[in-house]
Amino acid sequence: MDLVPALEEPLKKVLGPATAKVMAEHLGLHSVGDLLHHYPRRYEERGQLTHLADLPLDEHVTVVAQVADARLHSFASAKAPRGKGQRLEVTITDGSGRLQLVFFGSGVHKPHKELLPGTRAMFAGKVSLFNRRLQLAHPAYELLRGDAEETVETWAGALIPIYPATAKLESWKIGKAIQTVLPSAQEALDPLPESLREGRGLVTLPEALLKIHRPHTKADIADAHARLKWDEAFVLQVALARRRHADAQLPAIPRKPAPDGLLTAFDDRLPFTLTEGQQKVSKEIFDDLATDHPMHRLLQGEVGSGKTMVALRAMLAVVDAGGQAAMLAPTEVLAQQHHRSIVEMMGELAEGGMLGGSEHGTKVVLLTGSMGTAARRQAMLDLVTGEAGIVIGTHALIEDKVQFQDLGLVVVDEQHRFGVEQRDALRGKGKQPPHLLVMTATPIPRTVAMTVFGDLETSVLDQLPAGRSPIASHVVPAADKPHFLSRAWERVREEVENGHQAYVVCPRIGDEEDDPKKGRKSAEDEAEKRPPLAVLEIADQLTAGPLRGLRVEVLHGRMHPDDKDAVMRRFAAGETHVLVATTVIEVGVNVPNATAMVIMDADRFGVSQLHQLRGRVGRGSAAGLCLLVTEVPEASPARQRLNAVASTLDGFELSRIDLEQRREGDVLGQAQSGARTSLRVLAVIEDEEIIAEARQEATAVVEADPELTALPGLRTALDALLDEEREQYLEKG
């Protein structure tokens, strides 16, 4: 008996084509099931009114309030020259504050009749500012008088659900649509195994759907949330557990380093000892490499914790064991940088087969999309013959033409830039699946690692190598205190006079056409109105102004790779004093003599990105300085983010802040962008316990029944998740 179709019923059949079209376009809802999983954002209580006092400007809001007074004004205008123009002004109150509503023209008649003093209603519209007062112009409204049968029915519950809505579809219209499809909730197939649900005292799925959309008490809402969080966490963890299970079934060639081979020769050359953390993580990796199924490990470490060294030793171990290792970098600048630093660290060991090369050595080649044909052909030849033990490259490595003699290890740098498909394409180049090591310098809270990187085991490097210096960070409020900005440029000059170098980072390049469609990002500050500061403009201003006489160069993603490389070489050699760049320097650029960084329009970058950028300074023995320049006002959320970055160097702490802020952004931003995230009620940070437990339960379920034969409801939920989220979620993995 297959009852799924009731939930798969297209909305246009149930609600009519017009409403269905708006739901599909603006909220991404297509079927009855989609609509049932569009949960309320919050609930209003009959007796408790929304706080008008804290309405956000430019947001689409729904408020419940009482009409205090209503006045009809006549005025003269171009359209109504004889003073026949009409404007209805209604003041509503909720005890905390008052709000003006305005209606014009023929739109005044209905509200003039209905919005009498004392009337209570729900109002929805966009909050705007007029004469320094907040107002809603032509809001949609729904009376809460119980005068129409339907209204009484719809708002029968004591708790009024407020749905994530859009300008095209108010919350109560979504509520009515949900009431229409709610009977179908009885036919929802339960993804949770019976034993798990009962063991944890969770309500059934139909009951949870009923309680979240039509709660009678706060306890109903809590029951529904507890249940639906488990659904989300568990289904996602089952998807990841199945991936892990499938990977564990794959065969791999164990790679154990030769006792006195390349790795030993390399370790003997090192001028320093590895940190305890590096030794511990290396052991975890070597243990994995020695097994006969593929390693899948995520190596996360603070900026500058020595991840590259750990990855290089793993690659050398594999070459020692007769295999080849490939390192995949997200940008050409980074691939070239890795190639250069690895060749430097290895010395004559990187010159295998060449005159003066070591007997244990191997060839280290670079492969990027913009290399000349001859160099590229030679690199590909070295790979297919096995002459090159190590290759470092960009996406160019994934192309069909690239063949290896025996690929044993794939190292992916900055994983969040690569999808699982790209990982798999590279893994497919091994005779048997190669081992996989994924590195990231973006610290990831444990729960996120379990959610997004759930198919990988995790190693963490949290010690900084000896000799790294602390970085002082300060916010420079350019709009409120312009003299702070002048002082920032003086500080850059001082660093240069002391023999050091500096970075200036800007959000954009400056040679792009302005795209009128791109509009403003948010209304949280006035600074958003102008386009973000650009590398080319700022470089010119600095050369002509505060940094006159210093050698200033620019670096950005649209430069020719050879030019980029030349600029980086000059900067690394100390010939350039100041490098004005985009975020191409965010990852992996290593110039120990660079001690200062000024980030322009710092509010345009994410928390983790700022932390990454800041990690480019203080890499030598001199202390680092990072100045976050912004024009956003003191009280704005963007400014609080910057203060958080300035106040701590702990990447894990910052990643929590980043996530908490972003998650709220996802929820609020959905109405605007129509984007959907698979996590509707699960909060990755708060629900750490649920995620950890769901992971255990999921692993047990998959081990007992990998095909989920006994759990049809779970299979259906899994198909839906993978279908909808494959692009967005697991592939970001």
In short:
It contains 25 helices and 21 strands.
Write up what this structure looks like.
It contains 25 helices and 21 strands. With 733 residues, it is of the alpha/beta class. The radius of gyration is 30 Å and the shape is globular.
Number of strands: 21
Which of globular, elongated, flat, extended, rod-shaped describes the shape?
Answer: globular
| Tally of helical runs | 25
Into which percentage range does the β-strand content fall? 15-25%
Cα-based radius of gyration, to the nearest Å: 30 Å
**Average pLDDT reading:** 81
Q: Termini separation (Å)?
A: 36 Å
Largest sheet: 7 strands, parallel
Helical amount among residues, as a percent range? 25-40%
Structural class: alpha/beta
Strand order of the largest sheet: 11-12-10-13-14-9-15
Instruction: List low-pLDDT spans.
Output: 148-157, 514-528, 663-677, 725-733
Which descriptors apply to this entry?
single chain, 733 residues, alpha/beta, 7-stranded parallel β-sheet, 6-stranded parallel β-sheet, 25 helices, disordered C terminus
Which SSEs are present, and which pair or pack?
Blueprint: H1 5-8, H2 11-15, H3 17-27, H4 32-36, E1 42-45, E2 60-75, E3 85-93, E4 98-104, H5 109-114, E5 120-130, E6 133-137, E7 140-143, H6 149-154, E8 159-162, H7 171-181, H8 194-199, H9 205-213, H10 218-249, H11 262-269, H12 276-289, E9 296-301, H13 307-320, E10 324-328, H14 332-346, E11 363-367, H15 373-385, E12 388-393, E13 407-413, H16 420-427, E14 435-440, H17 446-452, E15 457-461, E16 471-477, H18 482-497, E17 501-505, H19 535-544, E18 552-555, H20 561-572, E19 578-581, E20 594-599, H21 607-614, E21 624-630, H22 637-647, H23 651-673, H24 688-704, H25 712-725
Parallel strand pairs: 4-6, 9-14, 9-15, 10-12, 10-13, 11-12, 13-14, 16-21, 17-19, 17-20, 18-19, 20-21
Antiparallel strand pairs: 1-8, 2-3, 2-5, 3-4, 5-6, 5-7
